[in-house]
Design goal:
Elements lengths: L8 H12 L4 E4 L1 H7 L8 E4 L3 H7 L4 E4 L4 E6 L2 E7 L1 E3 L11 E3 L3 H6 L9 E2 L5 E2 L4 H7 L1 E2 L5 H7 L2 H13 L2 E2 L1 H10 L8 H12 L6 H7 L15 H5 L8 H15 L5 H7 L4 H15 L11 H6 L1
Parallel strand pairs: 2-5, 10-11
Antiparallel strand pairs: 1-2, 1-8, 3-4, 4-5, 6-7, 8-9
Helix pairs in contact: 6-8, 7-9, 12-14, 13-14
Amino acid sequence: MTARITIPPQVQALLRQLNAAGFSAYAVGGCVRDSLLGCAPQDWDICTAALPEQVLDVFPGSRPTGIKHGTVTVVIGSRSAEVTTFRSEGDYTDHRHPSSVAFVGDLTTDLMRRDFTMNAMAVSADGLIIDPYGGAEDIRRGCIRCVGAPEKRFDEDALRMLRAFRFSSRLGFEIEPATLAAIGKKAPLAAGLAAERVSAEVEKILLTARPETLNTVISLGLIDKYLDRRAAPEEEQLHRIAALPKKALERWAALCRLLTVSGAIRSAEQFLTALRLDSRSIRCCNDACEMLESPAPGSPPNGCWCWHART
């Protein structure tokens, strides 16, 4: 495609330096997606045909931060960027991590292993977008779609199912039907994910303007390990969380209150401990839920959605 985006000068210089050394190189992934969405990327990740040792030769003083997987951290001026060799991946025997990594010579093969089309785009030093899987069009349509067969993508990494809902909640995008159906089929794989990974994704959804997305996450069984989905609160009840400040503690407490009242969890303490939240958050959320369970002096506070949730 002929669309172009503007790359920061330091990132452009990094790409051109690799090009001058005889290696193709591109900014890749989330930075391209966010640029097309009109958001300023937080990080600019680079992929290249250069092997890690060759990247270290081109940029003396760089750090081999993940050389086993082909990643070198390069510092240019005040910025740093992760530079990773084009690669393909072996089988994901644990549904999370590849059993092996093989370096390859072409960009398209590297992009093929990524999760969603909107994250499988790259941009060259002159700003030209390379988009073999239709990510730009999916962004235009507001659509989250897997690269290739969705069931295979989720078999490889079960966390991608929660990431799909996080992107949906953050961007207001719809998950396309085949991808959503695959999540429903592969949801039991989420039970094998580390609790810290699950809680991080749930928290990111909670902090968006659409926390009610968790209703679908729960109903599909993605967090069955932690609660009883049959007793989950309604979507409208979860939507009320959006009226609270975008602070993690407040929103976790609100979620715990709704889940406790509905009977989906026994207590905030049990739920958050299983999700490996920090001790302060567990204590504060549990205290808040217990306080609201106590008889209120006089009438319940007017307009408090937590009290209304009890009835």
